[in-house]
Design a protein that fits this description.
- The protein has 262 residues and is of the alpha/beta class.
- The protein has a single domain, classed as 2-enoyl-CoA Hydratase, Chain A, domain 1 (Alpha-Beta Complex).
- 47% of the residues lie in helices and 15% in strands.
- The protein has 10 helices and 10 strands.
- A 6-stranded mixed sheet has the order 1-2-3-5-7-10, with helices on both faces. Strands 4-6-8-9 form a 4-stranded mixed sheet.
- Helix 4 packs across helix 5.
- The two termini are 21 Å apart.
- The relative contact order is 0.12.
- The structure holds 4-(N,N-dimethylamino)cinnamoyl-COA (DAK).
């Protein structure tokens, strides 16, 4: 798509209800190299700046892998300083994804390992095909997760499950991922993207402004409950400064569909 410039490692398509970003390096099982990160960074910037923000789906090309991790061939020769830079850049891009103002959905069509699992957990919702496999195998490569896995995974599946996955490096299947809350839904092989598009169809009806505030509130989760409640109240109040609140409530009372600002 023209507005993103020339993309070598991603494809971006616009559907009515969602933007779909596909990581397209199938020969390397869609491994994340610096080019993928840079292109994802650029595409997110354009989507955020241009609006209107639709739900965003991230998937991998082919049926074998979502993303099989950071690119091991590229990482192998890094110096400690280059490794830190690579890690900080990946963290920045994944945090941008987490802060994306619309709903983000990972359609996990196969292996989601290492940086691939970290990409999935930087999304709001995870839909897995039955053949999906999850893991953080970094310790077997002599490293640790570097794109937020040590921090984000525990928030998603709890410290016990995060420690199990990160310290063992073992792979789990889609049903096990569902049991520990790593994914929200498991669907037949080959159907993850279709199901993600269905999910997007239901959430795209909601107020984009309210969705963005809700994300800020949930990701702003504070161990100090009073502080968290304060954040929630501030964001709740902010909704009342936006036309979508009047429109949403008036539409309900008038028994019609709300026409939110997009
Ligand atoms: N990177 C590069 N190439 C990969 C790859 C990867 N992560 N995963 C697979 N490939 C390539 C293979 O090398 C092979 O290439 P060719 O030999 O055909 O040229 C091709 O994809 C097909 O893979 P296989 O032949 O291995 O396919 P199999 O079906 O036999 O096995 C597999 C599938 C997913 C089980 C296996 O490929 C595999 O174990 N892949 C590696 C998975 C893995 O360990 N992922 C975690 C990567 S580490 C940090 C920053 C980031 C990170 C950490 C730190 N800092 C800078 C601090 C993140 C780290 C990771 O993600």
């Amino acid at each position: 798509m023209e507005r993103f410039g020339q993309l070598q490692t991603l494809t971006v398509t616009q559907e009515d209800q969602a933007t779909v970003i596909t990581v397209a390096r199938p020969k390397a099982l869609n491994a994340l190299n610096q080019a993928v990160l840079a292109e994802l960074d650029k595409v997110l910037d354009v989507l955020i700046a241009d609006g209107p923000v639709k739900p965003l789906i991230i998937t991998g090309e082919g049926s074998k892998a979502f993303v099989a991790g950071a690119d091991i061939a590229e990482m192998a020769g890094m110096t400690p300083e280059e490794a830190r830079k690579f890690s900080r850049y990946g963290q920045k891009v994944f945090s941008k994804l987490e802060a994306f103002p619309g709903v983000t959905i990972a359609a996990i069509n196969g292996y989601a390992l290492g940086g691939g699992n970290e990409l999935a957990i930087a999304c709001d919702v995870r839909i897995a095909a039955g053949n999906a496999r999850f893991g953080q195998p970094e310790v077997g490569l002599g490293i640790i997760p570097g794109f937020g896995g040590t921090q984000r995974l525990a928030r998603v599946v709890g410290m016990a499950n995060a420690l199990d996955l990160i310290l063992s490096g073992r792979m789990i299947d889609a049903q096990a991922a569902l049991r520990i809350g790593l994914v929200h839904k498991v669907i037949d092989e080959g159907k993850a993207l279709e199901e993600a598009l269905n999910y997007a169809k239901t959430v795209v009806k909601n107020s984009p402004f309210a969705v963005a505030q809700a994300k800020k509130a949930v990701y702003g989760l504070d161990p100090d409950l009073d502080k968290g409640m304060e954040l929630e109240a501030d964001l709740f109040a902010k909704c009342f400064q936006h036309p979508d609140q009047k429109e949403g409530m008036t539409a309900f009372l008038e028994k019609r569909k709300a026409a939110f600002q997009r």
